[in-house]
């Protein structure tokens, strides 16, 4: 019986997790794989490719000569991720299921299951790094800044990071594909997955419409002019351009229209013309539901950098606690399309410190003073 510590890799069928397993095996770890099915296919459209992904994961495991376990977390995903997201959409917010999935499924349900299988460590194909001893783990940026996924991992706590290994921390995506080809993996050139976490690429409005009833209302300019009708505020997000059907309108310039706000009380979708219209810009935000990687917030007020979305270059900002337990973030430069329900993620020079859920935008017209509305 092999008593070496076991690391179980979350094999998704993609190239990143495949190379993670290969690297760990080459480093001398005892490696096994775990394929997670987190969404039950409920139609015949082929959007959910769980079986095809499992076949790719099976080929990787066979190539490496490792065991591949399989588990169904669909019920947990539905309850802890998807149902919460539906509630947020109904409230007019734009949630991020990838963040919730990492917090509740990939680094909780997966970790618990891996430990039941005897694992000491778990690994994934995320582009991120972790340093420091147990209880003092730090979540650090990946070397490939274009692929860095710490934005999606900010809600992990010390217990979740303690057993985590991120083998791709120092690699670029191009190098990962080269290694996959070298290892003999058939998925070395498989396209990156996009769309809703574990649900896949779909017509978003049509998919969401299976769970949220249409609730049409007026599309209105910031000046109050009614231009058309929307399908329901849940189906739109701040900064959205496509799907408004407002092109070629008389008395208006040819600039494209963008969603700049949602008025829930009046069921009105507020729009304006121009990519950088002032109504789309914010000097700061207020956020709640904060999660700090260290287990407690940093000393604040403090200068920091933030991201409002994945792959956004970090923006200089000032973080200040609010009396009600929330935190206020004021940007050095105004930011576009700050969206309630999305996350603001905070960084220092070394690591991702944590983040919170955006609840309010601070408009441009208010004075820009550090931490003061």
Structure overview:
The protein has 373 residues and is of the alpha/beta class. The protein has three domains: 6-183, Rossmann fold (3-Layer(aba) Sandwich); 213-275, SH3 type barrels; 279-363, Translation factors (Elongation Factor Tu (Ef-tu), domain 3, Beta Barrel). The protein is 23% helix and 28% strand. The protein has seven helices and 17 strands. The strands form three sheets. Strands 12-15-14-13-16-17 form a six-stranded antiparallel barrel. A five-stranded parallel beta sheet has the order 3-2-1-4-7, sandwiched between helices. A hairpin with a 7-residue loop joins strand 13 (302-307) and strand 14 (315-321). Helix 1 runs parallel beside helix 2, helix 1 packs across helix 6 (173-183) and helix 3 runs antiparallel to helix 4.
Give the topology.
Elements: E1 6-10, H1 15-26, E2 30-37, H2 50-64, E3 68-72, H3 74-90, H4 97-116, E4 121-123, E5 129-131, E6 138-140, H5 158-161, E7 164-165, H6 173-183, H7 204-208, E8 217-221, E9 226-230, E10 257-263, E11 268-273, E12 281-292, E13 302-307, E14 315-321, E15 327-336, E16 343-347, E17 351-363
Parallel strand pairs: 1-2, 1-4, 2-3, 4-7, 8-11
Antiparallel strand pairs: 5-6, 6-17, 8-9, 10-11, 12-15, 12-17, 13-14, 13-16, 14-15, 16-17
Helix pairs in contact: 1-2, 1-6, 3-4
Function: Catalyzes the 2-thiolation of uridine at the wobble position (U34) of tRNA, leading to the formation of s(2)U34.
Binding site for ATP: 10-17, 36, 125
Organism: Spiribacter pallidus
